[in-house]
Amino acid sequence: MKGLELSYQFYLQYGEPMLQRDFPQLLPLVAVGMAGSGSECFGYDDELSQDHDFEPGFCIFLPDESIVDEKTAFELQRAYDKLPREFMGFCRSIETPVGGRRNGVIRMAEFFASKVGTSDGRLGENDWFFVPEQGLLEATNGRVFRDASGEFTDIRQRLVNMPRDVLLKKLAGNILTMGQAGQYNYNRCIGRGETAAAQLAVSEFVKGALHTVFLLNGEYMPYYKWCFKALRDLQILSELHTDLEYLISSGNDEESAMKKVMVIEDVCGKITDQLRLQKLTTFSGTELEGHAYSVNNMITDGEIRNLHILYGV
Fold first, then answer.
1. pLDDT value of position 97
2. Which of 100, 108, 158, 272 is spaced 20 to 30 A from 292 at the CA atom?
3. Between β-strands 86-87 and 90-91, what pairing exists: parallel, antiparallel or unpaired?
4. Domains along the sequence of the chain with CATH
């Protein structure tokens, strides 16, 4: 069973009755769901995920202390801790005084501040460049089971999409990185016999390509270990996962290097086609550097447009 479904069923069977019975006054104020860290919150969990931090549980997100005081929050946490220790064959972890709680009672403000740096999800345009996309994903992933006030959902909604100019700046920088690492430096490293440096160039190219594809989909790129899994589920250019996996996992002998050059150009061509399809470039050549600057020129805010092209990388 997937972790989100386990969480939901545990909430329905035990959490909701507990809230209705013991804390009816909180029902209009709290949000309940599962979101944040952990593969289950992304839907990426599998049998291997169950070896740590996998358990029946859910989050109860509280508004600030002026609405729900600390005494009530403490009583709610105690009631949550008393819920059954085992459910559907899975055991809940033993609570410790050390931090790192992923479920139970959590203040909304603390949750969002830990993920994006602000308690209400309001970010200035420049702030978007400094919030890790993994944090934005953790703030908006998972599933909300109830949110009568809508406050938790409203904050999440503010974070679902980055501003277009920020997206374009990040896109321009990652396309330029792809061009420099893949179309230019990989060949030069191979020509010098620097195969380790060549593989670093390929790694930079693949990272830039991954980020570019997520941006073209209007999606945040997840933590590195989930990038390829998430890539395969994207609507646009998901087929690139095969080429990118090959580039990053193959060697740099003469035959492999020749093939890699062709694969790199194929990836660049598909990304260029998508840029044109989305009307994000007017450059007519094949060099990604030209497309990077063309994308940068699409930025409407002059201050953001005039920042260094790699500012968003």
1. 45
2. 158
3. antiparallel
4. 3-158 (no CATH), 164-306 (1.20.120)
